[in-house]
Amino acid sequence: MTFTLETIAGIESIISAPQFDHVDSDTIEGALDEAARFFSEVFAPTNEIGDEQGARLVDGQVITPEAFKPVWGKLVDAGWTAVTGSPEYGGHGFPKTFGIAISEMMTSANLAFSLNPMLTGSGITLLTRHGSDELRDLYLAKLISSEWTGTMVLTESEAGSDVGALRTKADPNQDGSYRINGTKIFITWGDHDLTDNVIHMVLARTPDAPAGTRGISLFLVPKYLLNDDGTPGERNTVEVVSVEHKLGIHASPTCVLSFEDATGYLIGEENQGMRYMFTMMNQARLEVGLEGLAVAERAYQHATEYAKERIQGRAIGADGPSPIIEHPDVRRMLMTMKAYTEAMRGLIYDAVAADDRMHSASTEEERDAARDRLALLTPITKSWCTDHGVDVASIGIQVFGGMGFIEESGAPQFYRDARITPIYEGTNGIQALDLVMRKLPVQGGAVINAYLDEIDALAVNLAATDDLSDIAGALSRSLAAVRDATTFLLEADPGDAMAGATSYQEMLGTLAGGYYLALQARAATKGAQDDPWFAAKVSTARFYAMTILPLVSGMAGAATSGSNVLFAIDESLIGGVK
What we know:
- This protein is of the alpha+beta class and about 575 residues long.
- It has three domains: about 1-145, Acyl-CoA dehydrogenase/oxidase, N-terminal domain (Butyryl-Coa Dehydrogenase, subunit A, domain 1, Orthogonal Bundle), CATH 1.10.540.10; about 150-270, Butyryl-CoA Dehydrogenase, subunit A, domain 2 (Beta Barrel), CATH 2.40.110.20; about 425-570.
- It has 19 helices and eleven strands.
- The mean pLDDT is about 95.
């Protein structure tokens, strides 16, 4: 993680910004060490417990697993959720690039539990950028400390991906507040017993609002209304109707919430709710991409430990039974897990570093470049990392063999938990449409082509290095395929572009993964002769280049074949025989 912060994110340049003058490399290294201890020793033991006990609805109150409350108290006391918060409201003021490393540890330790501070953090960003001074003064400090937590309340039964179809109403009161009425579904950590208050960020329509997303406003709706002294007082009329029974993340209460004349407070201006909510959603999409990485890392560590201990068969050249890690196919699986995981980390840390640079840039040109890079990388981060987080967790089950299908091995939970990540916070199909229909055309394709030019420059640089020329060749071949597909999609009609979007997203993500591993291989070559750890970085990049990057060219046909092959069969013949 430290190596990625240094070689990909450029953490040294980020903390050189004036607002981070209290942060230095030694502080970051020490904090990472302490975070590793805390999340390994305190947080991680709750993962299996949470999966087994789950969250329950009892007399209208969500009850979390019994081990969670003391751990939450320790999390708040340690201040880990306040790392990137504004010092003005009690936060530590570290860059987001450092915060994402802390989040990775927390999420690897317990994905279901980590969703609570993750959504709270996204709500903090939303309130910081769009809330009034009054709302910030009332709520931000408690959210940053995690004494209170936040939710994202968008989805309704008829308004999932199509948010513009939502019907929840917000009618004004004489005192400036609003009465919120409606039912929302799939609300992650919509209620719980860990804190004194839960702060909902709710999308709703005011009277006479325009149809669709243009008529959506955003409201802050607390579980408990505040007394004059800022403490929680009267219970707001927000009811938990039910808690969903899910494939995974059992300890994360996914709630149906009913708002019946609930008191809410307008955030920003009326009919600007979707614009504000995208502040929260885009941060959450990076964090969900991180979930793919975090579960992959945990599954990889779990599978590697098992492969070193499990004795089965005789490896080539061995005198007796061998640990399965010595068998070529098991080694292939573990190397695949390792390569994807390290590639994901590079992509995510680069995206979050762009966010930091966007807010600390000294010139408008630098700010715009960082903003465009973040916008380009966000859908790739969310989709590619979650798709392959699921893949890596599945490979982990395979490493365990028959035992991997048994819950007691621990491997199935990683797969069950990871499976939601390609779905929520905008399905990966929606991310593909965002990438191809919105992000590729920015500045006539200049943003995507600048990113591809970076990869090309690295490939040229590596080609001049004997030890890395094979990686350069693989990178260049994949880059050529992505360039061709990019040109096709930029010129294609909307139907053909949409048809190729998911395949293109996979192509670009796979190429990006190879790029970040190649960057790290270049940085590691100086120490590779003397240090096996650096040598492993080079070997991992080479494995990815030789076995995974070639998949990019194989996907080119799917990305450029157009929509006719998808709609050639009448829908009446799909799903059955006439």
